[in-house]
Amino acid sequence: MTKLSVNINKIATLRNARGGNVPNVCQVALDCEKFGAHGITVHPRPDERHIRYQDVLDLKPILKTEFNIEGYPSAGFIELVKSVKPHQVTLVPDPPEAITSNSGWDTVKNLDFLKAIVADFQNVGIRVSIFVDTNLKNIEFAAKTGTDRIELYTEPYATNYPIDKEKAVAPFVEAAKLAKELGLGINAGHDLSLENLAYLHALIPWLDEVSIGHALIADALYLGLEDTINRYKKQLE
Ligand code: PXP
To answer: At a CB cut-off of 8 Å and minimum separation 6, what does 174 contact?
Structure first.
């Protein structure tokens, strides 16, 4: 079964726009779980412009499903994640000022750096996933870091899907096949939507997890959160 982890950054963005506590990030996370999400993802950035470090601390004791924390492994991020001990940490290479993650790791160049960080998290019992593109060399070297999983950066798939979906998915299938051969678990995320999710899953049914934020929260404006989560889960059946 492919799990749906709901990324709740956009809820925090909305809350922060007014400075109060509406919408309540923790309550929304609990409601996502109640409506059937298999996990909750957050991406605390150093400027705390959406999810704050305090949100991460507040969420940990109340969540009942899988907690996934994404981010660039700065000293502050590593300290936060190790203190919170989520089920999974997803390492992304984006610089602090990036609007959103916009590339995967160059795992060849960062092999030693990633190896040390992966081991550090695994030593305290946290599963590690590394965000990568479909370059097969990056997948091969991701395995050398000792990571448990990779997360495929699906933005290029989502962009090209409306033009030629078979062509768009092909590199992802190839990358996912290699990752499977190498014994890696596979997550996927970025710009996945009700339009493009089912096809990706049909071609890569061995995906462990998808993490979805932007499109899902936007759909919820029209459909409501419960209906939206159910529709996304249906795409994964
Ligand atoms: N995966 C990673 C590593 C991300 O940085 C993000 C965005 O925060 C997502 C998945 C979710 O992407 P989207 O918001 O486009 O669904």
So the answer is: 134, 136
- The Cα 148–Cα 142 span in angstroms is 9
| DSSP assignment of 17-39 | TTSS--S-HHHHHHHHHHTT-SE
Q: Region 186-199: what's the mean pLDDT?
A: 98
190 in catalytic set: yes
Domains and CATH numbers, the chain: 3-235 (3.20.20.70)
Is-catalytic flag, 43? yes
Instruction: Confirm if 4 and 229 have CB atoms less than 8 A apart.
Output: yes
Task: Output the CA 19–ligand 1 centroid distance in Å.
Answer: 24
Ligand 1 lined by 7 (C-beta under 6 Å): yes
Looking at ligand 1, which atom is closest to the CA of residue 7?
Answer: 11
- Per-residue pLDDT of 106-137, as tens digits, reads 999 999 999 999 999 999 999 999 999 999 99
The answer to whether the CB of 88 is under 6 A from ligand 1 is no
